[in-house]
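Predict structure. Chain length: 433.
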Amino acid sequence: MGLLDPLMERPREVLRLRPFALFWGATTLRAFGAAIAGVAFQVLIVTVLDATALEISILSALSVLPYLFLGLIVGALMDRWRRQRTLVITSIGRAIVLALVPVLLLLDALTVWSLGLIILALGVLILFAHSAEQPLLPRIVPRDSLVMANARLGQSDTVAGTAGPALGGVLLNLIGAPLLFAVDAVINAVSAILQSRVVVDEAPSKPRAAGRHIGHDIVEGMRYTYRHRTLRPLALSIHLWFLGNSIVATLFGVFALRELGIPPWAFGITLTAAGAGGFLGAVFAPRIGASLGAGRAILLGRVLVVLPWLALAVLPLSGATSLVVLVVALSAAQFIYGLSMGIEDANDTSYRQAVAPDEIQGRMNSTIRTMNRIVFFFGALIAGVLATYLGYPVTIGIATVIFVLAALVVALSPLRTARQDDAADPTAADFTP
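Prediction complete.
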């Protein structure tokens, strides 16, 4: 058996740990609530408010805006604030903000701009929540259970992302938008209750030295991330992956629906295949990480993601191709795409949580997350230009090359041999808390 032995052993089930079970329950509820509300927001914007294309693009940008301008600041704050308390407050805040939507609808006072303020407020609250979740998890579960914990979170997130929109559409037809937003507000309120019951030991942060301010904390977090012997290549690889992903995520729907001409129901099948792949990848991620090590598991995910987009770039697919062939090819590509993310996400996130000292978890994660959002923002803009002048297959081929570069960064760096049980090493990046 040898190398396959760890794959045959089931890692310890973290849902038996009460603090994590409560954390997972709250996170899963919020994921379903967000997926359901996403459908309602789209319906409101397009049909109720009759927003123009420019207004729709502005509303879409507002959800990302907080990450671009506040991401690093919030990450620094999460290394000084109580992370559990932050999660509870943000869930309560989201419940209140979502409850405003049905009130404004019933008063016939909802406009594009008032909805924009609501989306912006939700974006800020979600930023705080995400910035608190990742550094809090290592306080809730043992380090050797982080991959399993992140895999469980990934599985529920994948199910929510796949089933949530369909459920949202059904509920929207049954109870209408006002009640649907009220339901989502209740979901976030229940999440806040579950989060408040998580028992976790959070050490108080040390006071800043004289003459230091939050800007020093931010610079320290960036310096730590990009000087660390394994986190530096991990961050650079993730940034490259996000660049490639921004291109394919922006173009896949247009490529499938407009260029290849598949009907919407067939497009839905391909997206379902991505969800199935992501779920399966998250199921096997802990065993793959235990068998291969974190670095090689991440590398496996990086290599797998190359295959579907390489196939779509070189296969002679067109609107004249049989619909059955198109659905099979696109579904297979999306399945492998989802599988690669399911394997990689849990091992990637868990390694970051395991290797960085608690005092800098918030800043390290926010540094990577903020740069990812910036890369994705500009990559999405570039995708349209490339597709316009070079066509879809060539543009997808360029994204494939970027994915290859992301894999090479891992393969040619010390990250390749990194394991989940590597000790948190402050000296790896000259960090002194």
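Summary: Residues 385 and 395 are 9 Å apart (CA to CA).
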